[in-house]
């Protein structure tokens, strides 16, 4: 092999919890590999979360391989600095072979077998490649943003840090998913005037019938359900996360309650024209949808408690604290005193650098439990890759262990000279 080109059995793209979980298991199998990280290990956790960010799942669900949560508050919710301490400890524990500050520019199939990996630091080859760079790459900001008054500061949720980082005045938060609801609450608790453009995000209770809802769902084996058994099948990957919070020990987020306290709610924002923000008349429907999901989850817990004969406190049905009396479909942001907009409408994946024919029309990789139809190419850390926990601290270890087994089989086949195994030329 050309001395200027490094070769490895496996190259892992991405140095977050998924990439390091993969490295952990490959080290257990003594498989040669290298992690390539565009910035620094755990960069997205360190730089793309607001100051009051905390986990929305209990600490006991932090189960990265060989490094479970060992603190004294398993049913609490780590705040940002505690999360970073946990992840830094995990990184030290894994001690992965990693190159930081290396952008992967192109991954392609080699005619000789295996893959070429072009980077900002030169060329590499690999028998197999694991893409562990996540699925949240390009912040979504609609084109209407270009037409908004220049006096309004606009940031995406990944840029938001705290209320003090925004100009004085009212704030419009666009999107009521997990990030939007929590950022709206953060601003509201700081005394800022908040306008919230909602979507059809679902919500769930924090605690119900004496336990955290996550604990109940774990008891019910919901988190063991593979994607092919979910009622929505692969469609569940498009679902918006339920909004709830672990802040201050954990609680529900109830947008109707915020409305009684002065937060102004609207339906989905769909345009800006003639000096007005224009909203769909679907606020009532959005709130009702969230409440229906909330009550549905609690009802499933009720059934489980009854079936198992569990002695638990009485349950109940959520009754709305506030009702929509008028669907307002227009708002002049300048007249309303809005000086900032926080876009909380998600991200799109960007795998344009992965020049391998495994993607669907929306740029999402086709795979079964992370294994693509292209031999030796895998994905790890995506939402619902296999189960609910695949993109989280709770489930990525299982997925990484599974892929490590697939990789080890191919490495053994290569070593045995199996003609059907992919091998990069040396």
Automatic annotation (TrEMBL):
<dbReference type="InterPro" id="IPR024000">
    <property type="entry name" value="CHP04046_FMN-dependent"/>
</dbReference>
<dbReference type="InterPro" id="IPR050982">
    <property type="entry name" value="Auxin_biosynth/cation_transpt"/>
</dbReference>
<keyword id="KW-0560">Oxidoreductase</keyword>
<dbReference type="Pfam" id="PF13738">
    <property type="entry name" value="Pyr_redox_3"/>
</dbReference>
<dbReference type="InterPro" id="IPR036188">
    <property type="entry name" value="FAD/NAD-bd_sf"/>
</dbReference>
<protein>
    <submittedName>
        <fullName>MSMEG_0569 family flavin-dependent oxidoreductase</fullName>
    </submittedName>
</protein>
């Amino acid at each position: 092999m050309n001395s200027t080109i490094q070769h490895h059995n496996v190259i892992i793209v991405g140095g977050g919890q998924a990439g390091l979980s993969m490295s952990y298991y490959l080290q257990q199998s003594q498989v040669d590999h290298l992690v390539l990280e565009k910035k620094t290990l755990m960069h997205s956790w360190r730089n793309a979360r607001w100051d009051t960010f905390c986990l929305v799942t209990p600490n006991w669900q932090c189960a990265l391989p060989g490094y479970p949560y060992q603190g004294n508050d398993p049913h609490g919710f780590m705040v940002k600095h505690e999360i970073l301490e946990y992840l830094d400890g995990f990184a030290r524990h894994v001690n992965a072979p990693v190159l930081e500050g290396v952008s992967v520019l192109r991954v392609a199939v080699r005619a000789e077998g295996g893959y070429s990996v072009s980077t900002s630091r030169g060329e590499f080859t690999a028998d197999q490649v694991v893409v562990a760079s996540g699925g949240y790459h390009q912040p979504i900001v609609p084109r209407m943003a270009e037409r908004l008054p220049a006096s309004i500061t606009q940031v995406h949720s990944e840029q938001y840090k705290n209320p003090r980082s925004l100009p004085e005045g009212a704030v419009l938060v666009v999107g009521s998913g997990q990030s939007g609801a929590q950022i709206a609450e953060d601003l509201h608790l700081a005394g800022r005037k908040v306008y919230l453009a909602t979507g059809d995000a679902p919500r769930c209770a924090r605690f119900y019938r004496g336990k955290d809802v996550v604990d109940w769902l774990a008891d019910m084996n919901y988190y063991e359900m593979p994607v092919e058994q979910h009622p929505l099948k692969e469609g569940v990957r498009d679902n918006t996360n339920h909004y709830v919070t672990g802040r201050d020990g954990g609680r529900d987020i109830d947008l109707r309650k915020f409305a009684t306290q002065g937060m102004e709610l609207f339906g989905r924002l769909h345009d800006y024209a003639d000096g007005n923000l224009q909203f769909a008349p679907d606020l009532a429907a959005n709130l009702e949808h969230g409440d229906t999901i909330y009550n549905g989850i609690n009802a499933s817990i009720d059934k489980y408690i009854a079936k198992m004969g569990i002695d638990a406190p009485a349950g109940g049905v959520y009754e709305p604290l506030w009702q929509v009396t008028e669907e307002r479909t227009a708002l002049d942001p300048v007249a309303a005193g809005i000086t900032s907009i926080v876009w909380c409408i998600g991200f799109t994946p960007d795998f344009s650098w992965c020049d391998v024919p495994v993607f669907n029309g929306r740029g999402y990789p086709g795979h079964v439990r992370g294994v693509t139809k292209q031999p030796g190419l895998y994905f790890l850390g995506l939402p619902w890759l296999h189960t609910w926990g695949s993109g989280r601290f709770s489930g990525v270890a299982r997925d990484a262990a599974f892929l490590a087994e697939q990789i080890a089989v191919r490495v053994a086949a290569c070593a045995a000279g199996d003609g059907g195994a992919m091998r990069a030329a040396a």
